[in-house]
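Hey, I'm writing a tutorial for new members on how sequence and structure tokens pair up, and I'd like a real worked example in the thread rather than a made-up one. If someone can provide the structure for the chain below, I'll link this post from the tutorial.
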Amino acid sequence: MKTGTVSILGCGWLGLPLGKHLLEKGFSVKGSVTSPEKLAGLSQSGISPYRIILSESEIILEDPDFFETEVLVISIPPRRIEGIERIFPVQIGRLIPFILNSGIRKVIFISSTSVYPENFQTACEDDIPSPDKESGKACLLAENLLKGQSEFNTTVIRFGGLIGADRNPARFLLKSLRPIANTPVNLVHQDDCIGIITAILDQELWGVTLNACCPEHPLKRDFYGKAARISGMPEPLVSDLAEDYKIVDSSKLIRLLNYQFIYNSPMDYLDSLGSSQK
């Protein structure tokens, strides 16, 4: 395992456990949060804490030493607000002068499979994305902005829907009153997100774009029905109406990194939840 210094912009649901994992692997880790109250938590974890706020108009950075690093991981998803297609690329663009001035040559950008439309297709990295959601448009513009820079190499990871840790899939059922569609899911577990990023660092895979979803794609009715049963919730209604869908292909990631998913199917995660409750 190669080690060095990694700076993680956005130590949230993914960034914080990633930082802790990299510390265990021997990396020096710097991490950013937006709230002063969270700085102590980073320190207690062994992560060097920094407060950084990206807004549409400015970047608030108390200590530029954050950018003195070998690898920068950008893990700040676009917020669900009006105009995010315009705002998010501006926020990411504000990072570029800091990257250039500090001499960073390796960047990992956490993106999303929302860059692909739901158009009854299998989505591969060679496809020309045409997002149908604002968040997907925002991610794609940010991707292109970073990949268009010649002075550093950006590896883009397009993660599917995130599961694991405190994200019980059954929570989706509480937020939606619509019947569950009879279409495939594109999900990835937090443990695999961390494993994939670690593999990229270890194998020095730079300047590529990778889809990252469980290789198996069970139907929503089966996955969420099982999640509901495990959580003691009523099973969701299932719609028989045809709905748009996509299946995100992660075979490029598996091939280039020789990566074996911890959770080959989202159902494997549900099985582990069920076992832990017995």
